[in-house]
Amino acid sequence: MTFTGWLQIGLILGLAALTARPLGFYMARVFSGESTLLSPVLAPIERGFYKLAGVAPEREQGWLAYTLAMLAFSAAGFVSLYAILRLQAFLPLNPQGFDGVPPDLAFNTAVSFLTNTNWQAYGGETTMSHFSQMAGLAVHNFLSAATGVALALAVTRAFARANAATLGNFWVDMTRATLYVLLPLSLVLALGFLASGVPQTLQGSVDTTTLEGARQTIALGPMASQEAIKQLGTNGGGFFNTNAAHPLENPNAFANILQIWSMLALSTALLVTFGVMVGDERQGWAFVQTVGILLVVGAGIVYWAESAGNPLLTTLGLDPAAGNMEGKEQRFGASMSALYAAVTTGLSCGAVNAMHDSLTPLGGLIPLFLIQLGEILPGGVGSGLYGLIVFAILSVFIAGLMVGRTPEFLGKKIESREIKLAMLAVLILPLAILGYSSVAAVLPSALASLANNGPHGLSEILYAYTSAAGNNGSAFAGLSANTPWYNVTTAIAMILGRFAYVVPVMAIAGAVAAKKKAQPSAGTFPTDGGLFVGLLIGVILIVGGLQYFPALALGPIVEHVLMLAGKTF
User: What is the mean pLDDT of residues 220-247?
Assistant: First the structure.
């Protein structure tokens, strides 16, 4: 590890923290229906959308109606994307002449982009036409992110209001998230990527002569625009199979910094938005501190593990001075690869600028563990916020048990109904992750997809279902996941991770919104200070993480012990 490496990490995280407050306040104004700088231009467009769709923006919905609207919209999105992928060969903007996507892969991909997972069991440049990339995948990058933001806003209003029967209007929240937040920022960010050298063209490919004199065909397409919303919306689905490790998708240090910042920008700012909308900005910053501490520690461990190198490679004669550079780009190095890995898995982005399968055992354990914590560091756009609130509810409940008081969070009493629903949400992820991983670990057809056996092979399986259920989308590249078994089962895991999780969370929001607000008293546990931050971190690690320890012990931890002993399985 070097001072320069830590300085790079600190500067990028500092930049994300610096922009969190203005973006957070801006979004609070947008979703409160207040005027912004963009309102003169966008407000007439917004009203036009409502008129065309027959939406009455002033008519709010209760938690059940809000949730059903979200589910209906998601079902329609799945049908449309599945149709585009299957009919790809007959649609325009297909310069490569690609056939339609096979049914199981189309099912997996439609679910993937619908749930903001962007798991890709295919090579983008060899499978998807420009029309599929733009009208299918990029469109759902916007809509799935906007859906997550809308759900987070509904939960936010539950704590901001008292004796309320409604949580807002799903159609209004989703429209504003897209129109006022995601679209303008994506346009600016796409220009930044264009300036850094990311292509944006409808040309299918270009032929070039290599330095050795051979002819090579290089895939091209509308990359800069997709790169922008892929990162801002914490989607992660890359134009290329190698994602942000590809020199066209992530050509230089400036593009890499822009990518890491854009992953963090909106998810971090939404924590500030939460504080502003509930009337306590300090609460939002307490959440920022919580996720910031865990994220910095995670990035630090990955950086340390990769800088220490791999003894097995050292014995083969490789110079250990540069650390473990297998699967990494020289233009980013160990520090930026470590930060990117921690950020993309602490969020639910899944973009990668290095191959996680090539990380050292402990270096690979941390991204895996960060996803298993529930994708809340600071998580996906919107989904990270409501996931963090679930852990906050559990934290005040545990604190209440310690001192014998009825737990409260932001003046709302937390009772048995909310705790039961919170635990139902928390248990969804281990059910999907450990359940499917255990079956795949003994199923011959699933084992046939592994590039490695032993502990690393188990890590590949565990990572696949962790990434799917956590709606992350990154992968240990050694797993060949484009098979009927993995396409179907990872898709089901994605559905469970998104919808089976959010329904009980919305039920919590409905129950909390209906409660009155209690005034703080001498016995009220403050949830905006250091004590709460420490408690919340402990609950996240214990409740969210320890349930995976046996599986991790059999995978990356055993592999690390073998590596130190100079052995492989």
Answer: 92
Angle of CA points 163, 165, 169, to nearest 5°: 130
559: buried, middle or exposed (CB in 10 Å: 19+, 13-18, 0-12)? buried
Element (H, E) at 146: helix 139-160
To 5 degrees, how large is the angle CA 110–CA 551–CA 374? 50
Question: pLDDT per residue over 500-548, tens digit each?
Answer: 999 999 999 999 999 999 888 777 888 999 999 999 999 999 987 888 9
Structure tokens at 181: 């937040």
Instruction: Indicate the residue type of 139.
Output: V
Cβ–Cβ < 8 Å for 108, 488: yes
SS3 91: coil
Give bridge partners of residue 205 from the DSSP assignment.
Answer: 219
Select from 471, 473, 470, 451 the least CA-distant residue to 460.
451
The helix, strand and coil proportions of the chain, stated in percent and rounded to the nearest 5, come to: 65, 5, 30
Q: Which tokens go with 417?
A: 């109904």
Q: How far is C-alpha 127 from the chain's CA centre?
A: 23
- Among positive and negative, which fits the CA dihedral 164, 167, 172, 173? positive
* Distances in whole angstroms, Cα of residue 214 to Cα of each of 206, 248, 322: 14, 20, 31
Query: How many CB atoms are located within 10 Å of the residue 366 CB?
Result: 26
Give the residue among 32, 59, 51, 563 at the shortest CA–CA distance from 311.
563
User: Measuring CA to CA, how many Å separate 55 from each of 51, 52, 69, 70?
Assistant: 6, 8, 12, 14
Distances (CA, A) of 422 to 386, 419, 427: 11, 5, 9
Peptide bond into 378 cis (omega under 30): yes
pLDDT band at 423 (very low <50, low <70, confident <90, very high): very high
Over the stretch 193-203, which tens digit does the pLDDT of each residue have? 999 999 999 99
Distance separating alpha carbons of residues 208 and 386, to the nearest angstrom? 48
φ, ψ for residue 218, nearest 5 deg: -110, 125
The kind and range of the H/E element at 219 are strand 215-219
**Residue 146's pLDDT band (boundaries 50, 70, 90)?**
very high
Question: Measured between alpha carbons, how far is residue 301 from residues 333, 446, 457, 543 in Å?
Answer: 15, 31, 22, 21
By the 8 A CB rule, do 224 and 197 touch? Answer: no
Amino acid at 10: G
Which of these, 20, 164, 134, 77, lies nearest to 509 by C-alpha position?
164
- Decide if 210 contacts 218 (C-beta within 8 A): no
Name residues whose C-beta falls within 8 Å of residue 51's C-beta, 6 or more positions apart in sequence: none
Q: What is the pLDDT at residue 569?
A: 63
Question: Chain centroid to CA 418: how far?
Answer: 25
pLDDT score recorded for residue 204:
87
Cα–Cα distance, 182 to 186 (Å, whole number) = 6
Which among 316, 294, 372 is positioned nearest to 556, based on CA atoms? 372
* pLDDT 10s digits, 87-119: 999 999 999 899 999 999 999 999 999 999 999
Q: Is there a contact between 498 and 471 (Cβ–Cβ < 8 Å)?
A: yes
